[in-house]
Structure formats: C-alpha cells, structure tokens
Recover the amino acids of this structure.
C-alpha cells in the first residue's frame, strides 16, 4: 500500500470514528506536511458531513421505524453491517475522486478544481472548455483543468445540468460512482445522490451514451426527450419519456416531478427542505406524480400531493412520516 493510500485509509477510519491515538497523530502530521492531501481531506470531510450529518435524534420517526421493523434495530450485527456500508461508501467516494484525477498530475499539467455549493443555493460555473454547468444544492463537481488528452472528464456527486461545449474530437464525460455519461455537445441533467439507489439522466438536446461504471451490464443511448433511471444495485437501465419544456427547473427554485415515484420525491424534498421524510409503506412509495411547485412550503406540497393520490402523513419537529394510502 502506498503512503498516499494509507493516509486515505486513515481518513476512512476517522470518518467512522475509529482512529487510535497513534493514527490521530499520524493524520495530524500528514495534514501539516502535505498540502495536497490536506485539501483533499477537508473536501472529503465536508462532503461526508453533508451526506451523513450527526443530527439530533428524531424520536417520533425512530419509534415508528422500530415499530415497523425498518432500520433502527439494536442488533449489533446489523449495526456492524451499517458501519461497513458507510466505510464502503467513503472508499467508493475516494475512488471516484482519485481515479484518473488526483494521481494524474504527471501526465496532465492541469489543476484539480472542486466546485460545490451549499444545500440552499444553486451555482453556475463555466469550465475551461466553455461548458456551462449548474450545480444543485449540496452537489460537488471535480475536474482537472484545463482539459487535456482524449477526453474531458468531470466527476459528479449530486445533481447538475450541463450545456457542453461541442468538440467532436474530445468527448465530454460525466462520471458518477455508478455510471458514465459520454457526450460530444449537448444539454442534459445528471442526478446521482449517494443516498439514492436510483440515478437519473435526462436529455434535452443532442445524444448521450450511458455506461455502467462496474460490471458487465450493457450501456444505452438516449435521444432528446428521454430519461434514464439507472439502478446501481443491478446495473439495470430503464428509459422513458420526460418533459423538456422546463429543463432542470430547480435552477430557478422550482420543485418539479414528471411521472416520479413518491420514494424518489421524498428524497428530493428532504434535500430541498432539509428535513427527514420517511415513507412507511411500499404501496404508497410507488405512487407516481407529475407536478410543479414554485414558492409553496413543504406542508402545502405534501397536502396537494396527498389530495391528488390519497395518502396520509404526519408532520412534527422531528420530521415527516408518510403513511399508508387513505
């Protein structure tokens, strides 16, 4: 194991609160002596705190989850599995950031850029090739710029809308932990949140190719007006039609859904309104909605959705519980 990999292994242990005193001292010395590692460390730690915040206990929701046998069980074996999954997610994140970017400095004279925005903002950036990118709240984009070589590669965690500068000789590739989106010049949205088992690509102009990052699953091509749901657990890609009238509406503060399951809607509302939402039954979670909201508060959105497809829900200071169909 190289010294650099060893340091990142220590980072994984720190994020899981599993460092010994000697390892803490080694980490501290490394952060002081290695500016590159220090920058990567703080970027990863900030992202980790966003994905796995240490929040106050949500008693009402935790009691409900326990009653319904969801996730809050006292079984130590399950707890160990949960910690293992967290560690794996961090290793996957580190692999995403480092592969082809952080250790390519000798072949690529560019500089590592990490673009990110707070959970309550949308940020527009322009890359060195002229590509325009809008980052949704809490998202991260990593590039090595100026681009060189046979591809222009950007690594995404979260959600972003791209207007790619055309270059027929040098394709633009957006990589997430689960898949790659390869384009020449086009407009599309990629949504890849760590907490979601389903990743999404919506194409508005041009043509893109989707390629799973791992395994032998086949890729797929998208045409304008199509949307792909990528299921990371089995590599399956499902293509359907989408609404292109108001592309990436979140750029203008609009919450919109097009034939989307309530499971996915709940995750988007969690990020938008910074609160915990639990869908308690598979039946209600698979309800599909097409809707658009501009300035409505969360309780109004839930009320309107429940009127359209009758389900019940409870709101408390600890979060929201979406219960069974009425």
């Amino acid at each position: 194991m190289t010294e650099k990999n060893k340091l990142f292994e220590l980072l994984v242990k720190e994020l899981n609160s599993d460092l010994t005193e000697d390892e803490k001292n080694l980490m501290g010395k490394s952060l002081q002596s290695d500016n590159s590692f220090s920058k990567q460390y703080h970027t990863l730690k900030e992202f980790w705190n966003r994905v796995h915040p240490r929040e106050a206990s949500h008693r009402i929701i935790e009691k409900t989850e326990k009653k319904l046998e969801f996730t809050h069980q006292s079984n130590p074996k399950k707890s160990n599995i949960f910690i293992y999954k967290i560690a794996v997610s961090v290793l996957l994140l580190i692999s995403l950031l480092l592969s082809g970017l952080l250790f390519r400095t000798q072949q690529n004279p560019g500089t590592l850029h990490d673009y990110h925005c707070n959970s309550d903002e949308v940020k527009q950036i322009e890359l060195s090739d002229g590509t325009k990118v809008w980052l949704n709240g809490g998202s991260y984009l990593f590039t090595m710029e100026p681009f060189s070589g046979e591809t222009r590669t950007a690594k995404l965690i979260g959600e972003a809308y791209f207007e790619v500068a055309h270059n027929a000789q040098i394709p633009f590739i957006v990589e997430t932990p689960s898949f790659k989106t390869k384009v020449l010049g086009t407009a599309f949205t990629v949504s890849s949140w760590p907490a979601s088992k389903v990743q999404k690509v919506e194409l508005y102009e041009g043509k893109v190719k989707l390629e799973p990052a791992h395994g032998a699953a086949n890729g797929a091509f998208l045409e304008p007006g199509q949307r792909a749901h990528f299921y990371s657990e089995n590599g399956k890609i499902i293509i359907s039609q989408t609404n292109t009238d108001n592309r990436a509406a979140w750029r203008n503060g609009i919450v919109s859904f097009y034939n989307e399951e309530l499971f996915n809607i709940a995750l988007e509302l969690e990020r938008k309104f910074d609160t915990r939402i639990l869908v308690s039954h598979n039946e209600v979670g698979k309800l599909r909605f097409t809707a658009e909201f501009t300035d409505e508060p969360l309780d109004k959105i839930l009320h309107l959705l429940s009127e359209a497809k009758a389900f019940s829900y409870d709101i408390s200071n600890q979060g929201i519980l979406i219960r069974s169909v009425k």
DSSP finds eight helices and 18 strands in the chain. Residues 53-88 have pLDDT under 50 and may be disordered. The first strand starts at residue 111 and ends at 116. The CA atoms of residues 85 and 97 lie 18 Å apart.
